[in-house]
Design goal:
The complex is a heterodimer of chains A (about 200) and B (about 110). Chain A has about 200 residues and is mostly helical. Chain A has one domain (about 20-50, about 60-199): Four Helix Bundle (Hemerythrin (Met), subunit A) (Up-down Bundle). In chain A, about 75% of the residues lie in helices and about 0% in strands. Chain B folds into two domains: about 1-75; about 80-110. Chain B has helices at about 20-45, 50-70, 80-100. Chain B is flat, with a radius of gyration of 20 Å. In chain B, about 15% of the residues are buried. Classes of the chains: A mainly alpha (about 200), B mainly alpha (about 110). The interface between A and B is large, with 65 and 56 residues.
Chain lengths: ~200, ~110
């Protein structure tokens, strides 16, 4: 018996060919594209309109950011493996992979903390230059998204995983949905890294 | 109650050949790591600005495409999702291009 009271939470809606959750998360991601897209566009306009622009790679820590890129990519793999484990009916494996995803997210934020604190230590604040202002805005907003994703993912490890006993399909779909958000966060960083650190 | 449904598979249709999907995930992971190293290596080449920017964004687009197509299952997703994202990309280019076009005398300075 279904515990869902909203129709097409798991069942496919005949006119769209999708369940409502899938459409909902993609619409939300579309709004997130506009949010980060607007900030990327701001970066481009600020840079091309500025009389001078600092050497970004001289101010920022490229090796640490490269490590963070590898960390987030790995977390995307563990995220999708967590979902695949549910498809295979392996709750234990799911908890392992999802726990790994949360841990890698934590590693990312810890590295970010070291990056930020070093910048503050040498006197590089958002108010120091236009570049640092947009750098802290973009990476700060991205970091908040990482944190939010981590909270949701951690909830799915426990206590959210109790839904596995009630409705396996709905729980698997929820994890896939959380995964879509997490992959988007990774995708944003894939563009942030070269734009802010390498160009 | 286990809540088994009859109108959709255990995972919304994705249960078909999950082993093949997992093999693809591993290949994509290795590709993403390699492309990350290539991105960093290219940044040390001291290319002309336009070429450097174009190459960096091209590699990032390929990486983003791999994440979207395979991790986010976009390559096997329904048309409606593509339409939603296509509109989003269109709007983003408007957001980017319209202010740039009003300030063209500054571009390239």
């Amino acid at each position: 018996m279904s515990t869902a009271i909203i129709p097409y939470t798991v069942e496919i809606r005949p006119d769209t060919g999708l369940n409502n959750v899938k459409i909902g998360i993609w619409l939300f991601l579309a709004s997130e594209v506009m949010l980060f897209g607007a900030l990327f566009a701001s970066y481009i306009l600020l840079r091309i309109g500025a009389p001078s622009w600092p050497e970004q790679s001289a101010i920022l820590n490229v090796p640490l950011a490269t490590l963070n890129t590898a960390v987030l990519i790995s977390s995307s793999v563990t995220m999708v493996m967590a979902w695949a484990s549910l498809v295979r009916g392996q709750l234990g494996r799911f908890k392992l992979y999802m726990g790994g995803t949360v841990l890698l997210g934590l590693v990312f934020l810890v590295v970010k903390y070291f990056e930020y604190s070093h910048k503050f230590h040498v006197g590089n604040f958002p108010s120091t230059s236009t570049f640092l202002a947009i750098y802290f805005t973009l990476t700060g907003l991205h970091g908040l998204h990482v944190l939010g994703g981590m909270v949701v993912n951690a909830w799915y490890v426990w206590p959210g995983s109790k839904m596995w006993r009630i409705d396996r399909q709905q729980f698997t779909n929820r994890v896939e949905t959380a995964g879509l958000f997490w992959h988007f966060v990774d995708l944003v960083w894939i563009f942030l890294f070269p734009v802010l650190y390498l160009l | 109650m286990s809540g088994e449904r009859h109108d959709v598979g255990p995972a919304g249709g994705h249960e078909i050949d999950i082993d093949r999907h997992v093999r693809v995930y591993i290949i994509v992971f290795v590709s993403l790591m390699a492309l990350t190293l290539i991105t960093v290596a290219v940044s040390y080449l001291n290319l002309p600005v336009a070429a450097g920017v174009a190459l960096a964004l091209l590699i990032a687009t390929v990486k983003g495409g791999l994440v979207a197509c395979y991790f986010m299952h976009l390559i096997s997703e329904k048309k409606l999702i593509f339409v939603v994202m296509a509109f989003t990309v269109l709007f983003f280019f408007f957001v980017l291009l319209l202010p740039t076009m009003t300030d063209l005398d500054r571009v390239g300075r």
